[in-house]
Amino acid sequence: MDISEPCYVLCSQEVESTSHIFLQCPVAKALWFSACWGFKLDEAHLAHPSDIIKVILEPPPALRQVQDMWLVSLNMALTTEEIWYTRNAVIHLNAEQPIVHWSSPPLGYIKLNVDVAISQNNSALAVIARDAHGFVLKA
Questions:
Q1: What residues does the Reverse transcriptase zinc-binding domain cover (predicted)?
Q2: CB-based burial of residue 52 (10 Å sphere; 0-12 exposed, 13-18 middle, 19+ buried)?
Q3: What is the pLDDT of residue 1?
Q4: Is the pLDDT of residue 40 over 60?
Q5: Taking Cα atoms as reference points, which of 27, 25, 84, 32 lies closest to residue 55?
Q6: pTM of the prediction?
Q7: Long-range contact list for 85-94, CB < 8 A, 24+ apart?
Q8: Domain ranges of the chain
């Protein structure tokens, strides 16, 4: 892919920006809707990418009625990760290489996926424990 190409790689409709990647892209909208119990970005009135963090930490009441709040927040966080991963896979992976997805551990084992974010004043650690069937045991 030509790095100077201004259009976003997943939809080729807009110039790539954080707002477009997570809020306006039709691919992102479809992922939010399918992964988050029919959550529609347009109805959430999210204007800035930082609004995603707010809605992840405090999901809309309609979604909290469907599932436990922690599960809604976890699913929304995983959706943002999938959007970013998919974007990076399209840009950085060779077309002949398949996109690698999560693989389960052997039966009787638990797999821990860990991610860390560090800034000058803060840090965050996230751990997700899943069994051999992909069921989330703890987050």
A1: 2-32
A2: buried
A3: 40
A4: yes
A5: 32
A6: 0.60
A7: 86/10, 86/27, 87/8, 87/9, 87/10, 87/21, 90/1, 90/9, 90/10, 91/1, 91/9
A8: 1-101, 102-139
